[in-house]
Protein: Putative HNH nuclease YajD
Organism: Halomonas nitroreducens
Amino acid sequence: MPQRPAQPCRERLCRQLTRERHGYCKEHERLQTGWARHQESKSASQRGYGSRWRKLRQLVMERDRWLCQACRRKGRATPAAVVDHIVNKAEGGSDSPDNLEALCRLCHKAKTQQEAQRGRERGGSGGGGGRISGA
């Protein structure tokens, strides 16, 4: 298969060439969604994880009995570690308890990777939302 032609990096003022579909060189690859740059300089509260989020997280964890809901749907009881947006905020999801569920780290990682893959396939932000497929 022929190699993709080298293009200048999409980051302003960068002169590096890349063959990556997202258009960023290795140094600027993390900026492909703009999300990392947007969040870099913000505190936890500014990113939406202040006292309101901590209270909401506690409510969801208690509602879900501190168990991973993806594992529970598969008949397993696994302790939850994070509260995740079923439809992520970048895709229009909200902080409503109906859009939040407790997940273990493994299921959260798998869901995040699926969302990123769907985003790459769409050429978008990496988000996609929704429950873990097969869960």
